[in-house]
Amino acid sequence: MLSRGKAMKVSIYLSEGSAYKGVSAYSTILDFLFFRGCSGATVLKGVAGFGADHHMHSANVVEISDRLPIKIEFIETADKVEKLLPKLEEMVGSGMIEVQQTTVAKPAQISKPKHEPVQEHVKIEGRALMMRIFIGESDRWRDQPLHEALVRAMRANDLAGATVYRGILGYGAHRRVHRKSALRLSRDASVMISVIDTEQKLREFLPIVDQMVEEGLVVLSDVDVIKYSHRTAPEPD
Asked: Which of 151, 121, 126 shows the shortest CA–CA distance to 229?
């Protein structure tokens, strides 16, 4: 973490369409700085400009240029900047890097919530229960997608976690085949929501599923839990 005093500010200039090994250059540079432990970095996008080729690039409603200027800025210690520069020079390609001395008047501090959430140690040993809910992608509940509403309901009821899967081929009770292809996207693809928790919590959640799902299939299966995690306790009022 940076401290008060002398430091170096690095500004990297390149175009939005620049790539490094087939990947967006500015995105790759940002990842590089993040995983090298830099204190922070900011990507700024220009709306107009020109570079070494002396071609004017601008964005408007009709045409969005992929050659618009991008600026990446970060501030670090002189020693760290010196270690990072060789790789940055390689990644920037035809872009430009500017380094200048600066003074950190007030270093940034990591913000902490007023009430630090206390994690309750929840361990599900051995057997647990898996609930799988099969519905259609177009199914609704109170003017919102049913699968999204179910996930929100699961989160509100403190279930351990949920995952939504979208089917690419299948059929249901009506025997109609639904498929996703490059030429045609089904508006009613099958959707499966999977959640694993204790049997008690899932049994208590079943009445809510009954209220929300008008047509679908709910399956409960016994499972063995290999890995468990903490459940965050609710914050005090």
From this structure: 121
Structure tokens that stand for 123 in this block: 């361990």
Contact in structure between 222 and 129 (CB atoms under 8 Å): yes
% of the chain with per-residue pLDDT over 90: 42
Task: State the Cα–Cα distance between residues 150 and 192, nearest whole angstrom.
Answer: 11
How many Cβ atoms are within 10 Å of 26's Cβ, its own excluded? 25
pLDDT digit string, tens, across residues 57-90 = 554 543 444 567 889 999 999 999 999 999 999 9
Nearest to 26 by CA among 11, 39, 37, 38: 11
Do residues 192 and 221 make contact, with C-beta atoms less than 8 angstroms apart? no
CA distances from residue 115 to 80, 118, 122, 234 in whole angstroms, order as listed: 35, 9, 20, 10
Question: 111 to each of 114, 116, 176, how far by Cα in Å?
Answer: 9, 11, 53
The whole-angstrom distance between residue 213's C-alpha and the CA centroid of its chain comes to: 28
Q: Indicate the pTM of the whole model.
A: 0.47
Q: Cα–Cα distance between 230 and 190 in angstroms, integer?
A: 31
**CA quadruple 149, 181, 168, 188: dihedral, nearest 10:** 40
Residue ranges and CATH numbers for the domains of the chain are 5-104 (3.30.70.120), 119-232 (3.30.70.120)
Encoded amino acid at 89, one letter: E
Whole-angstrom CA distances from 119 to 116, 125, 161, 205, 232 are 9, 18, 15, 22, 4
Residue 52: half-sphere exposure toward Cβ, Cα within 13 Å: 7
Scored b (16 or more CB within 10 A) or e, 56-67 reads ebebeeeeebeb
